[in-house]
Amino acid sequence: MRCKIDMRGLSQLEKKLLKGVSxxxxxxxxxLNTAELTQKxxxxxxxxxxxxxxxxxxxxxxxxxxxxxxxxxxxxxxxATVDYAEYVEMGTRFMAAxxxxxxxxxxxKEIFLKDMKKLLMKEL
Length: 124
What we know:
- Helices cover about 55% and strands about 10% of the residues.
- It is mainly alpha-helical.
- It has one domain (about 20-124).
- Strands 1-2 form a two-stranded antiparallel ribbon.
- A hairpin with a 4-residue loop joins strand 1 and strand 2.
- Helix 2 (about 25-45) packs antiparallel against helix 5 (about 100-124).
- The chain is elongated.
- The N and C termini lie far apart (about 40 Å).
- The model has no long low-confidence stretch (mean pLDDT about 90).
């Protein structure tokens, strides 16, 4: 039960962007927004307490949320690496969903688009 977003046509967009804007500047925007998305997801990730999970580990989901850069800095990825991350995000038939990644993504997506528009307007 993975949640994946597949965007097509990125190579054409990449070519258009790179004609007028340096790859380094695009990479800076991507890196900044990836870091901000990571922090937003961590801020939203639920953490069990001794009351809700006696004797258990607390904060593993939050600590497992890590960023990575791909495509030479033109793509950022934020991933929660614990095996139960999807169950927390999506819920199960026994547990209500506690979304943390999608709300963070939805909020950061708007910021990223504004940052890219600002960069394009400034550079072109």
